[in-house]
Amino acid sequence: MPDSSEDHVDVVVLGLGAGGEYAARKLAEAGLTVVGVEQELVGGECPFWGCTPSKLLIHSAQQGDDLARAAARIREANHDWHDDQHAGPLEEAGVRVVRGHGRLAGPGRVEVDGTTYDARLGVVLNSGTAPAVPPIDGLAGTPYWTNRDVMRVREVPASLVVLGGGPIGCELAQAFARFGSRVTLVEAEDRLLGPEEPEAAEVVTRVLRADGVDVRVGAELTRVEHDGGFVLEVGGELLSAEHLLVAVGRKPHLDDIGLETVGLDPAQDQVETDEHLRAGDRLWAVGDITGRGAFTHVSLYQAKVAVADLLGADGPVADYHAVSRVTFTDPEVGAVGLTEAQARAAGVAVGVGHADIPRSARGWINEADGIVKVVADTDRGVLVGGTVVAPYGGEVLGLLSAAVHAEIPVETLRGMHFAYPTFHRAIAAALADL
Ligand SMILES: Cc1cc2nc3c(=O)[nH]c(=O)nc-3n(C[C@H](O)[C@H](O)[C@H](O)COP(=O)(O)OP(=O)(O)OC[C@H]3O[C@@H](n4cnc5c(N)ncnc54)[C@H](O)[C@@H]3O)c2cc1C
Ligand SMILES: NC(=O)c1ccc[n+]([C@@H]2O[C@H](COP(=O)([O-])OP(=O)(O)OC[C@H]3O[C@@H](n4cnc5c(N)ncnc54)[C@H](O)[C@@H]3O)[C@@H](O)[C@H]2O)c1
């Protein structure tokens, strides 16, 4: 048996996260020979350690279920961390799923365990990210949790320190507080959910505190010790906790995939792509590694664009002016497009409108906290961004997403019928405030 072999195919998809899985299936269904390379579980982070299990934890915590029920539903949803429900449909569509670590080996070429796949049309890179772990004194070697570990937890820790006040930290701090843990949330910057509107961060800070979370912003974790439990030095103070969850961002899988063989820098933290998601000669990139928003729906959106390009179809080009995102705290933080600060930095003639959810009829009835904020381009008379913090804020966001995406004139939006008494009616108040 030779040590190495070569195989000729139409397309190799390197990494089968959300976008890679979609692209591989669609390209195979279009009649191409497709190899999909995956080193862990087909489907990637979202179904096994990301979106789905975290939302199951959050839902159970909100319902007042115990953690054991959430844990059982997580195992049921992801088949006990088996990827049969992802790999099976791919193989049925004709994708050859190759298990192992893939590396680019020149334009259109991918090497996996001694076999080189030469892809006539090219390679779709979807290698995604892993949890980032900061170089904090004493942290390495302790049994800290990342999002990978926390989805397997079956017993509520008496106390939990969450490091990082981004979406993962805020969502899980609230869920564990509601399960009964004593939670401390430690954020280095001066507010939670840094990239989102400060008004949204204020609400989230308030509701987390109301849930009993000790929210510490502008706080630095400088030293970690573990001896049965954790002892953590935060701003000179010693905190003890049964567990520590590290949620300080993501590290892209880019340094060990042969980027240098296609003329790209393996030390870069994202892959530049054009409007067709092309990243180089016979190379496309989709998902978190493109730096266009680390969200499943962005990965899927990009994969659709890349597939159209690979098939030579007169398909859509990638457009990011109305990227939506939701942080699934209670209340949810839904946002689309630019924040006020981003719009000002982009030189937009900014107009801003606010509404407070508690002052709306539905907010008062439901005793709900939250805000609506809309950001307009006053020269063009359209919204360029919007944020809704409200119960079902991610659903209410749909109206603002359509408005920003389709550039519906503000005057047209103001003329709509807004049903009474709904949360989305607060958008009318924010538009009136512009
Ligand atoms: C806790 C958590 C909650 C989240 N919640 C949400 C949410 O509610 N909504 C939302 O939109 N997003 C959410 N996200 C983000 C979402 O999970 C990602 O944006 C999504 O997974 C898309 O990632 P991706 O397509 O870039 O690839 P990934 O899911 O990262 O998958 C990449 C795949 O490539 C494989 N791979 C990497 N390198 C190689 C190699 N060299 N050879 C072979 N295989 C390789 C990996 O094993 C992996 O399976 C959450 C993330 C986390 C961690
Ligand atoms: N609902 C959703 O869509 C959802 C949910 C979870 C995660 N995600 C995605 O996953 C990605 C990762 O999420 P995340 O929350 O880990 O990352 P993040 O980068 O969004 O937030 C990390 C936070 O940790 C803080 N931080 C960094 N180093 C720190 C330190 N040493 N001490 C204290 N704080 C520190 C940062 O200031 C930041 O606020 C995000 O980009 C997000 O897009 C999405």
Automatic annotation (TrEMBL):
* Cofactor(s) required, per the database record: FAD
Q: Per the database record, which ranges form the FAD/NAD(P)-binding domain?
A: 10-303
Which Gene3D superfamilies does the entry link to?
Answer: 3.30.390.30, FAD/NAD(P)-binding domain
| Top-rank taxon | Bacteria
Tell me which residues make up the Pyridine nucleotide-disulphide oxidoreductase dimerisation domain: 323-428
Q: Which UniProt keywords apply?
A: FAD, Flavoprotein
Q: Which SUPFAM superfamilies match?
A: FAD/NAD(P)-binding domain, FAD/NAD-linked reductases, dimerisation (C-terminal) domain
**Stored InterPro entries:** FAD/NAD-bd_sf, FAD/NAD-binding_dom, FAD/NAD-linked_Rdtase_dimer_sf, Pyr_nuc-diS_OxRdtase, Pyr_nucl-diS_OxRdtase_dimer
Tell me its family.
Answer: Belongs to the class-I pyridine nucleotide-disulfide oxidoreductase family.
What is the official name of this protein in its record?
NAD(P)/FAD-dependent oxidoreductase
